[in-house]
Amino acid sequence: MRRLVVIVYLVELFFLFLMWNMYSYLIHRFSHIHFKGNILMWIHMAHHQVEYVKDNDNNGFVLPHWSQYLFWFGTFRESLDVWISVAPLVPLMIFKPEFGIPIFILVYIYESTISEHLLDHNPRITDKKLTKFFAWGQYHLVHHHFYKKNYAFIFTLWDSVFNTSKNKAQPGPIVKERLVFGIRN
Length: 185
Ligand SMILES: [Zn+2]
Ligand SMILES: [Zn+2]
What we know:
globular, binds zinc ion
């Protein structure tokens, strides 16, 4: 009986995590829809102005800046971009803390320490078998060149479900969207 309770809890925990993961996918996708007044696009643009790969030497083992532990990611817009993706976890923590707190801890550790250089923007993660399931390294870096692909965060699942996955491509410049987003070269 007790084992069943644990299994039901873990299934529900995983389900809620996937729901949050889908929300972060949808918000990211919406942030790339070009229309006047899309404030999410304006916020998310800051993420696309960072030259991650250029900064990424030392095999991706770049220590996070101390402010990232306080969920501050360099500028207001970059921080807001993360806060928006994490926002639904706040009511979940209040109303269902048994689920909200463990998911928040996981996301907090991921965002504040390993996301930026070690996983998401590490060009040395090239194994297609790995990036079939995890939105890391080359998989996410492809998104920095093909803005209509690879929106997923942590797992590639929602890109696969919504048919926006581009796992086979190598990152390379697409000039048009690059200009629309005002990316520096
Ligand atoms: Zn993006
Ligand atoms: Zn990125």
